[in-house]
Amino acid sequence: MTDLTQLTISTARDALRAGDLSAIDLTEAHLTAIESAGALNAFVHHTPEIARKQAADADARIKAGDAPAMCGIPIGVKDLFCTKGVASQAGSHILEGFKPEYESTITTQLFDAGSIMLGKLNMDEFAMGSSNETSTYGNAVNPWKAGNSDAELTPGGSSGGSAAAVAAHLCLGALGTDTGGSIRQPAAFTGTVGIKPTYGRCSRWGVVAFASSLDQAGPMTRSVRDCAIMLEAMAGHDPKDSTSADLAVPDFEAMLTGDIKGQTIGIPREYRMDGMPEEIETLWSQGTQMLRDAGAIIRDISLPHTEYALPAYYVIAPAEASSNLARYDGVRFGHRADIGPGDGITEMYEKTRAEGFGPEVQRRVMIGTYVLSAGFYDAYYNRARKVRALIKRDFETVFADGIDAILTPATPSSAFELGSMTDADPIQMYLNDIFTVTVNLAGLPGIAVPTGQDRRGLPMGLQLIGRPWEEGALLNVAQCLEDRAGFVAQPAKWW
Amino acid sequence: MSIDKETARRVAKLARIAVPDDHLDALAGEFNAILGFIEQLQQVDVDGVEPMVSVTPMRLKRRADVVTEGNQPKAVLANAPDAREGFFSVPKVVE
Questions:
Q1: pLDDT tens digits, residue range A47-67?
Q2: What CATH number should be reported for the domain holding residue A465?
Q3: Is the pTM above the cut of 0.90?
Q4: Is A351 a catalytic residue?
């Protein structure tokens, strides 16, 4: 038998249904791969017993002829998802020891569909970061290396463990979440595919909240088809999430014809940034040409408020985070600091949060506290929400004008070295999200597709942005780009 | 707008995060860098623009005000750092 870790979700599904493969064998192959991949630090909580039990159940279902597409497929779950009885720490020390008494809606749906959980995946603390360096578990490491250099690279963040695990073939797909680019940037850094669906497409219930108006879960896989299959199993209305959309979930995979003839693709001029590496610029032109060759009409468009997206995000996201993270107070779950004689409840809160939160989380909670405080609410928070309305309007205008999808770079660079940003201003790290954050602010679907490699052999991705609720059409454009780009490179195994 | 050490102390207090006195100056510096970046928003003409409440125009759904999954005190308390006699326990609040 060939190496089972080389299968994709779609090829594994077909082999499982044909009886050529068992979920048990597929699961064991991945558990073995995970065991020898400690150097990547992608899986931070291992659940082999659960995986073996779920695999046996999946095999029984497949035998009985009751096999949804994700049945028997081993996946990894970002540590941000609450999984019943399994550590769910959001990459934070403050949730050490927390084992939820409930299961998130998305993992429930995936398990009901027969998916197999291999374990929980590393991430930036509370999804705040772009390099997986703020995690309480230490850095996740990118399976890719730059040329002959031995330096360890970031897999991106915040879904860094998810991206590393998928790129290194430790699982067939992984759950990620994306608040400002946390699925798409790591996907681009690791040569994988990641989609952030329309806000409201996937339930947020049981997903540890960072910025509730921006957070959205999505799949990370090694092909566009796999993304379509996994997204369909994750999506759908959930009465437990009041912002979940009561809309039917289409058969996304059936929409992957790869035919985009006559569709209009917008190229936004504001995404051409000063100081953008030439290789990213070239990749973007090449991607544009690929879609043109496929019969798309290419049109230059303007999204005039783009440059204000990042500053608006760095008001809105910390503001929402400061509110959401108020619950970590050492009373109901997680870490509680030891208190000294004479300390009251306020000292307990302050010491617990100082010990439990890392520096980046503390910084964002305090920035959020400041922009929401009396006297600054209008100047910062309300103004940012107005700018957000304008950013959304920019997209509405071009979509009303006949644009079907928008093509942009996914990231301003390829993967950088772990540690290389340690002494940089926090804003330098925030710039990683410059091309992705507009999509969260506008609530749109966006997907990163590996499209090429830089001169050191590192993967580079492009982003496609679609109309709200039209993930199917967006995935189809992504399929076309994937077909034309023909990205097949894999990282050389060193771990 | 510039944040001084005293403002940093006040913000840390509001956020209920203990920050040692000798870290407050550095913290104020970080705040100023981030707020300087955010300051660009002042350049945008937002006259007549309503602040966004939700990306999808929608009325928040309502549900009946009834117990859905009640009677699980053990599950509710299972992760508490200190739970006693069916309650969360905290340091003395009222003298």
A1: 999 999 999 999 999 999 989
A2: 3.90.1300.10
A3: yes
A4: no
